[in-house]
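Tokens for chain A. Residues wanted.
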């Protein structure tokens, strides 16, 4: 076991100062960045080829047990008012978490080319920040949101009822078999494809769900040059083991391996510092609301609540350290608006 993994393992069992944990994360990021720096298009092609041998989504039951079914009350205490469980966008040093949530949602709507009257499908709606935003802004649009857990669906449906949003329908589905009825003017996906393994199979399905002049918008976190898995079989990969089960870190260019399915119409890149600040704000909320959070997690983790409190806190520190590494130039967020390839 490496020194870094030993530190992280210790941090799960007993509290360690943040400075020690952050130093270990920095060292791990440096090691990973060095390994990925030499990768390029050929490696992306090989990676995409290996992805074709996998199901669309893996370890769904394990992911739900560890993550997706954590009560909504936990995320209410950690996330911002919109419960946006994805990267936010900070325009200035003084931008608050709520303002950053709303700016990220505004940019997503703009970049996806959303408009009133459209039929819109969101793949992986999380706690509903974007779905509710779209339904509220575009009252004559028909929004279908796909949730990965019953807890998420229940929360989004309750919020839609409370706000009188009759144009939002929420479904719970396994992406391995999901097949919506009809076609859509826009399909949007925010930090969902990182949880998917077989992009070719899923993108082929997405293409078939689009109307003839439709567009697919994808928002993913990425590395600047190399793709890699969060390998559950690697006992040293704590994120894969406990938080991000069955996921991957795509490169910024990985999506180009599927150019026979979709053509990129326009793309955008966000510095990793936006995710660093997002995670730091979540961490501040976690520490501020610690007692309430502990009570919420106890309903899921029981006697292991203390362990999972440390794991969640370590996850937030790791997210901050990863995306803040090298001033946000190594890992960041990529957005693409795509149309069906001709």
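Reply:
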């Amino acid at each position: 076991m490496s020194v870094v993994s030993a530190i992280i393992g210790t941090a799960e069992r007993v509290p360690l100062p943040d400075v020690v944990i952050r130093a270990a994360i920095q060292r791990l990021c440096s090691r990973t960045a060095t390994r990925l720096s030499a990768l390029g298009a050929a490696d992306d092609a090989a990676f995409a080829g290996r992805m074709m041998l996998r199901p669309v989504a893996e370890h769904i039951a394990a992911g739900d047990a560890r993550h997706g079914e954590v009560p909504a009350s936990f995320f209410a205490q950690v996330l911002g008012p919109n419960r946006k469980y994805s990267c936010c966008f900070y325009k200035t040093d003084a931008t608050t978490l709520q303002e950053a949530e709303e700016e990220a949602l505004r940019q997503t709507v703009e970049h996806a080319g959303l408009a009133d009257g459209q039929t819109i499908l969101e793949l992986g709606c999380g706690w509903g920040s974007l779905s509710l935003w779209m339904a509220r802004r575009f009252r004559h649009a028909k929004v279908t949101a796909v949730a990965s857990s019953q807890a998420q669906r229940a929360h989004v449906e309750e919020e839609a009822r409370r706000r009188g949003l009759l144009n939002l329908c929420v479904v719970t589905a396994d992406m391995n078999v999901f097949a919506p009825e009809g076609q859509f003017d826009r399909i949007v996906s925010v930090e969902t494809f990182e949880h998917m393994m077989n992009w070719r199979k899923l993108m082929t399905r997405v293409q078939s769900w689009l109307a003839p002049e439709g567009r697919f918008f994808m928002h993913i976190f990425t590395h600047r040059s190399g793709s890699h898995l969060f390998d559950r079989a690697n006992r040293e990969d704590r994120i894969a083991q406990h938080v991000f089960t069955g996921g991957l870190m795509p490169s910024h260019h990985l999506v180009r391996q599927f150019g026979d399915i979709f053509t990129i119409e326009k793309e955008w890149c966000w510095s990793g510092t936006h995710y660093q600040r997002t995670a730091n704000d979540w961490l501040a909320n976690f520490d501020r609301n610690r007692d309430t959070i502990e009570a919420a997690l106890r309903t899921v983790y029981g006697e292991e609540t203390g362990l999972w409190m440390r794991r969640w806190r370590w996850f937030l520190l790791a997210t901050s350290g990863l995306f803040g590494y090298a001033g946000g130039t190594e890992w960041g967020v990529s957005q693409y608006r795509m149309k069906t390839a001709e």
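The chain has a mean pLDDT of 90. The two ends are 50 Å apart (CA to CA).
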